[in-house]
Specification:
The structure is a single chain. The protein is an alpha/beta fold. It has two domains: about 5-195, Rossmann fold (3-Layer(aba) Sandwich); about 210-439, Rossmann fold. It is about 45% helix and about 15% strand. It is built from 18 helices and 14 strands. It has helices at about 10-20, 35-40, 50-60, 70-75, 100-110, 125-140, 160-165, 175-185, 200-230, 235-240, 265-275, 280-305, 330-340, 355-360, 370-375, 395-400, 415-420, 430-435, and strands spanning about 5, 25-30, 65-70, 80-85, 115-120, 145-150, 170-175, 195, 315, 345-350, 365, 380-385, 405-410, 425. Strands 3-2-1-4-5-6-7-8 form an eight-stranded mixed beta sheet, sandwiched between helices. Helix 16 (about 395-400) links the parallel strand 12 and strand 13. The longest helix is centred in the middle third of the chain and has 32 residues, at about 200-230. The relative contact order is 0.09.
Length: about 450
Amino acid sequence: MSNICVIGTGYVGLVTGVCFADLGNRVVCLDVDQKRIDGLKNGIMPIYEPGLEQLTLQNVKAGRLAFTTDYKEALQDIEFAFIAVGTPSGVEGEADLQYIRAAAESIAENIDSPVVVVNKSTVPVGTGDWVADVIRKKRTGKPLDFKVVSNPEFLREGSAINDFMAPDRVVLGSLDKEAANQVAKLYASLRCPILITDLRTAEMIKYASNAFLATRISFINEIANMCEEMGADVREVAQGMGLDKRIGHAFLDAGLGWGGSCFPKDVKALEHMAVLNGTHPQLLQAVMEINRNQRRRAVLKLRKALGGLNDKVIGILGLSFKPNTDDVRDAPALEVIRLLENEGATVKVYDPQAMEVATPYIKKAIFCDDPYCAVTDVDALVLATEWNEFKQLDFSRVRTLMRNPIILDGRNLWDGDTLRGMGFTYFGIGRGTTDSTWE
């Protein structure tokens, strides 16, 4: 059993702390947000993640997991301090490291025993060296025995616990191989591949991985746009591509584009780093541009189908950027809603989990209690998130509730032929064999 402090209780920090506790370690999760910590002490989760609440309560009850806002308390007798705070995008797309600095300085101020500081947050290449400098400068005249290890996270929201407990790989980077091996022992029971590199390589692996996945999505969306114009079906194109073992099927689902807490800020940050270091990241810039255009194309389809959007009512199903999470950061639905409202449309929305989180971002929208409320008296319906709840709607009922039976399936979830047979005007993404009529 190891003594671990995890600084930050967002998606990464909370899942990391809870899972390490479940592996038998003593874990203290620290956050400066008193309200969040008070909620966790009372069993109230700050985020929606399947299985997280049950695992948290189980480990608190077992005495392996605790929560605090007090650095002195959290860092007492610990061996590992995981930094898992946010690194939001700055004005130019750069990663904002103010919370990393605050965590590093607080570690320096509140611990005197040897410690391995582990960067779990997604940070620019070179941050590990910078964190070490921050700690050393804060301890001027009173040296601290510490080592820095980079341990980037590869957790998918909606399946984060499984991703932690059954990872494809664990990446560790450090200038001190023994420190990396110490962290590796924390993951030994998971029996997964562990790659140990230098600090900067580990940091780059995280950015390169997310940028590549975002690139796959933007690629298939560009192919989808071609399919619409040329009469092909992108779903079958993706299936045919994916059967090639060199390509595979993952992240080849055409739709409204990628969003969330990772892809947007990480692609921007990598592009920013590339420019600052004298390279020309043409591909990354194209990946971001395609993603932006995907949301605009959806609005263009609606505008053409309805002959304009002013005074029209549009129903939106799904607000989170993907199913099984309440995260709406850079969610395609939010941008589509803003674009619709800018053209004079009224928007009705429903999401199984993200309504409360989304409220500050779409104050003019009409929030509904169920999907059927969201389709009542609307001129068109947009599926923005493919929640299971939406897979088998009663479309006979939907047809009677809608003012105009127009559906834009932004995730290619439904069978277009079936819906057309029921009297709907159906548009998918990249399903050109039947969708080209929207022109």
